[in-house]
Amino acid sequence: MSGPQCCENPPALNPVSGSGHVEKLGGLDAYVSGSLDSKLCVILISDVFGYEAPNLRALADKVGASGFYVVVPDYFYGDPFDASNQERPISLWIKDHGAIPPENQFHFPFSQDKGFEDTKPVIEAVKTKGITAIGAAGMCWGAKVVVELSKQELVQAAVLLHPSFVTVDDIKGGKVPIAILGAEIDQVSPPALLKQFEEILASKPEVNSYVKIYPKVAHGWTVRYKTDDPEAVKAAEEAHKEMLDWFVTYVK
Q1: pLDDT of 29-70, one tens digit each?
Q2: Confidence check: pLDDT of 13 > 70
Q3: Which residues are CB-contacts of 181 (< 8 A; sequence separation ≥ 6)?
Q4: Confidence tier at 112 by pLDDT (50, 70, 90)
Q5: Confidence check: pLDDT of 147 > 50
Q6: Would the pLDDT of 106 be above 90?
Q7: What are φ and ψ of residue 175, in 5° steps?
Q8: Which end of the chain has fewer CB atoms at under 10 Å, N or C?
Q9: CA-CA distance, 149 to 131, in Å (whole number)?
């Protein structure tokens, strides 16, 4: 399921934002931050607005400062969703990025298979740099890609932040420690669905898991917040800390 909430509060993209740099990794442009000396990598997989979002890059810098080598790939090949282009709504844009054509523009089956496949060479590329363990976090669109990586055990830990398109079957298939951070106000992955995820994970003691529904926040809150809104910043930073704690625990 996707809809208006996936596209609310679009960021002002900035290709030079962040303290890291852009380089080619596995065939994709990627924003890179942190140090290779750690041998531990975190891949951040964006929402539909892509890898030039300043808040996302700031999060990458924060994770990098904690000792990880951080990679934020450009899965949309320079073509992130543009909410201001009324001639190309999300239902049309998404067809160019791996979607099944929808009957209803806000409710449709969707495959992030391309994002998953694009991640494989990125993982191989970071391994050639000496990386020995990898965690992946996905926001909205990116969460589905992370789930697929978890199913194939291509990463050591997973975090889903206000996920989109993730299903009960996806959660059943996950094989690595997973944290799911959701919003109370979320039409895309409502609390009732997250509770189902929690129940499934509770029945899988072999997979360490954590599910939290943050009160009074909406879908997208971890990366699409206003930096001049103290409450929004605080709520986002709380989720960032939980994500980082998860990686510190399981990416070793």
Answers
A1: 999 999 989 999 999 999 999 999 999 999 999 999 999 999
A2: yes
A3: 159, 160, 161, 162, 212, 214, 222, 239, 242, 243
A4: low
A5: yes
A6: no
A7: -125, 0
A8: C
A9: 17
Tell me what percent of the chain is helix, strand and coil, each rounded to the nearest 5: 35, 25, 40
Could you give the CA distance from residue 69 to residue 67 in angstroms, rounded to a whole number? Answer: 7
Contact 47, 75 (CB under 8 A): no
78, HSE (Cβ side, Cα atoms, 13 Å): 4
Alpha-carbon gap, residue 231 to 238, rounded angstroms: 11
User: DSSP alpha helices (H): ranges in 11-140?
Assistant: 54-65, 90-93, 113-127
Compute the CA torsion angle 186, 191, 194, 198 (nearest 10 deg): 160
CA distance 52 to 34: 17
The DSSP symbol for 221 reads: T
Q: Specify whether the CB–CB gap between 71 and 51 falls below 8 A.
A: no
How many Å apart are CA 75 and CA 46, to the nearest integer?
Answer: 8
Q: How far apart are CA 224 and CA 10, in angstroms?
A: 7
- d(C-alpha 31, C-alpha 166), whole Å: 25
